[in-house]
Amino acid sequence: MSKRTMTLNLSDEEMDALEVLAAKKDLSKTVLLRQALRLYQRVEERLERGETLFFEDEARKQKAEIMML
Amino acid sequence: MTPAGPKQIIPVALLNVASRSPVVAELWKPITEKNLADWEVLWAPETAGQLKVLHQAGIERRLWPQSRKWDWRQKQEAFRGRLDNQSYAVMQGGETQAMMIVDLSARARLDEQVRQHLVYIDFLEAAPWNRRTLTGGQPRFAGAGSILLGAAIELSLEQGFKGRIGLHSLPQSNDFYANACGMCDLGADENYSNLRYFEMTPEIAAKFLKKGA
Prior knowledge:
The structure holds two protein chains of two kinds. By secondary structure, chain A is mainly alpha-helical.
């Protein structure tokens, strides 16, 4: 499959966050960014359908809506 | 306009059950219009014929293949353009022998790999003539399910998920995933029609690939 290359400039904070998450999930930084893009696309699709994104804490019976930019 | 063909074709082999000999086949990625047309024109009448035999033999409806209601065209349309879904088809003799759609956004449930990324198999179905039927019908080709499972593992490795895969199994396939594939059985999932959930660790995936489809 064909692939295209891009250069991504990140701030120190962004790179630190990326490295921490990649280490935590045992993924490469590239794979983690691909996963983030997939997630963003899926969330956007659901929001466009008028759905809402929530985090739910079943034990505390709390629900918090995630506000997407 | 010429319909889009597969972006990737990988040579694979199926087993001709009658002659016990391997036959050359292809793994296509993604599912194409040709595969969907085969599902409509070839799979649907064959499935209807098998259901008629089961009905006439007095086999209970709950034991009929649950995938009979799957609409592959609708599924493929729903997933078109989504980065977290990928699809595959096995081809032999110019006909679609099996199809699969996977999801790259799911997380593992097994304690030892909980919340790690995995490739989740949303749908996997063999052509109706490749299924063993409850009335004694023998499959034409064997191995299509294993080829697709192997493709899911390869995708998992390629994505950095270490070979981890997961799926909910239809009842008639529980034995295949548990025993032939050695997947871990996490039991019936009450949030998913009580279908049993199976997962493969990197170690089991490596063994599966080594054994070969």
